[in-house]
Specification:
With 74 residues, the chain is mainly alpha-helical. 80% of the residues lie in helices and 0% in strands. It contains two helices and no strands. The chain is rod-shaped and about 75 Å long.
């Protein structure tokens, strides 16, 4: 019985560590997405100011910029 409790305690400890690591990774990814979204908006603004319009970009990039301007990717 004691061995089973110790095994369960070890399993719970490992799961807790894994969950904390996953939560940290998710937080870092969210911060990265925020920085990338800001950089993409700045680049889109600078490009348009210098004559590079959305129509000159790929369809997926156009869709991404339009979605961000409409409040997406938050």
């Amino acid at each position: 019985m004691i061995d089973q409790i110790q095994e369960m305690t070890v399993a719970i400890t490992k799961a807790d560590i894994a969950m904390k690591a996953a939560a940290w990774q998710i937080q870092r990814l969210a911060e990265d997405v925020t920085m990338l979204r800001k950089a993409m908006m700045e680049l889109a603004y600078v490009a348009e100011e210098n004559g590079v319009y959305l129509s000159n970009l790929t369809k997926s990039t156009q869709d991404t910029i339009v979605a961000m301007r409409l409040g997406g990717f938050k």
